[in-house]
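User: Hey, quick favor. My workstation is busy. Could you predict this chain's structure for me?
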Amino acid sequence: MGITASLESKPRPSSQHVSGQHVADKSCLRYQSIPHSLVRILFCAIDLSKIASDLECGILKQNKLEKLRTKRESVAILDLIRVKITGKTTLGKIGSALDSSPFRVLISTVLSARTKDPVTEAASQRLFRKFPDSSSLSQADPREVAQIIRPVLYHNVKGKRVVDISKVLEQQFSGNVPSKFEELIDLPGVGRKTANCVLVYGFGKPAIPVDIHVHRVSNRIGIVRTKTPEETENELCKIYEKKYWLDINELFVRFGQTICKPVLPMCPNCPVRKLCNYYRFEFSAEMNMLRA
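Assistant: No problem, here it is.
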């Protein structure tokens, strides 16, 4: 049950209703005396896991009724986010650094899976100080690499993986990272998102890497209506001309990290709220219920 549904008025339960239902109704009445600014947080605490699951995929109750954004509106959304967002993602920093290389982008992207940007950035810096290229990393002990990249999530798995990738690069590509998508996804543990990140941040080639932020943001706003990151990638490629592809991941990821968060998005500060389905249908409905 979402926040809005939890606040809706309900008929007084009959004597046959379970005691838990009586408690829930009485609790709703008590919330009327609590400042409106706290009600939303309290209801999130009641059922946070369900709310997070719903918002993470950008799925709204009125999903079938909501109109998707036009191509023109989708481009306008990018422009609005660009003006609002400051700073870069970890991959954005690594890709634009003076000592950047496709190899460093590739390895950093592997480390970044399910790991926060500051942790990824620090771990990458430690790793590259000792193993700056595929030649040195291919000869490293995976256990040593795992200790260097801690506290990256799954550091033992990723430590072995980056060593294996480096070995393949040395054996099959003369130490160079391939610039073709088909060759990138043949590397150990490299999927669509990682391959596209290398193309964008390592080679400056147009592609749309779709991670959890890009998937959530584009669905929540109403640019696409998809269930998987791969579906989102395909739809975004149809909506946006190639000249926009290089910016989409960087802008949507930063936007998803700072404003359009998975839980309690900062809608009042959002530059695209007038074009956003979530703001129009979910957030606005919640605010109206709180004011009632």
